[in-house]
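Archive transcription. Copying these from loose printouts into the bound notebook so they stop getting lost. Printout 1 of 2:
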Amino acid sequence: MNRRIFFTTVLLAVLLCSLSCGCGAEKSSGQIQNVKIGVSVYRKDDTFVSSLCTDLENDAKAKETESGTKINLNIVESQSSQALQNDQVDSFLSGNYNVICVNMVDRTAAAVIVDKAKKENVPVIFFNREPVEEDLRMWSEAYYVGADAAQSCTLQGEIIQNAYRKDPRSIDRNGDGVIQYVILEGEQGHQDALLRTEYSVKKLVDSGLKVEKLADDTANWQRAQGAAKMTQWIQKFGKRIEVVLCNNDDMALGAIDAVRESPLKSNAPAVVGVDGTRPGLEAIRDGSMLGTVLNDASQQAKAIFDLSYSLACGKGVPGSVKLTSGHYVKIPYRIVTKENLAKYLS
């Protein structure tokens, strides 16, 4: 009888041990052997997001080589569907992933994902699309990695301001003392789009420049839509357009495409973007884009990966990640123009 009790006790201990080990990163003699990080992005054809994902993959490979730990970095696309993204999160959770990283389709829907992750005790890191603050604060293990959207377009306005001070007619092409501008915005209701639009113009006004808005419209971060909107505006306003403020580089490149196919190509308006993507930097080099504001994908990817890996290993927030207000990692923006372009192209 005692022997049966003994074996039953041993069997229960083995089962409990296997269950507890199956819920986290695999360990052997205290060393993490396998880390699983699930990443869901709203779209893979977004140039900035694609670049960030490539950097994430490179960071994972480097850490795998350095540590000897097997790192399973699974990046999936939500195809702009919040319902699909929620299903992907469910799949990560049921697959015993150690950390989940989410580039939200709908930034106002983060509470559902935070709640799911909290119930399974799996840290969740949002990036690029900032959730509502109340949703992020629902749980201590919910984080956001990104940049200050207001800063990006304060700097964008600074690019125009600096160019004007250096040569007023390079911006105010008709010499009327007023800068006529159009704005290509990201998607409707997106926080970055709202802030980038507001602060780029605010910077110009605060610096004492007179401005006149001719038009603004959303182009959903996409080059083709940016080109289509710009074509319409060229037909309507023609040479009155002196500045094109764009919430990202892809839309700025679309505006440039439209200008090149129009009578404005001989006296093109000043176009500025945000993100500092490789195509955007190339456009600065060839002179078709005045400047952009670097949204540092590589540094954001590093922060996301370092935080993910450390949390997966049960070590909390690493020293390499500067956390503010308990939940936020903000990477500063930087101005890029022809004057400092070489630094970023390299």
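Printout 2 of 2:
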Amino acid sequence: MYERKIPLYLNCGLDLIGEVLYGKWKIRLLWFIHEGIQRPSELHRKIADASRRVLNIQLKELEEHELVSKIIYPQVPPKVEYSLTEFGKTLIPVISVLGHWGDKNQERLRDVILRSSKNIPVG
């Protein structure tokens, strides 16, 4: 069984959001499910840089945090679909605002990210 090495800090809203949305692909998974992409294979095609294993782990965590629900259809082969819960839908406006901010500042953000990845001092 998994045992956390780092203690949980749930003292404020930002701590809680970080705990629920921490993971490289979670915000994109939520957005794509919102857009109607529901099957794991479709999600993997949209996020090809991620391994299936990592996407499955992050989808499971989103399900545990009650942001998405998973439906398994009893057929052979099994069919799985994800959808946003009502609680998960409340995050879509927040993700939208973050996306717009990223679009508005994409040139600056790219520059800062590329500089920091090359260890070039800022300023």
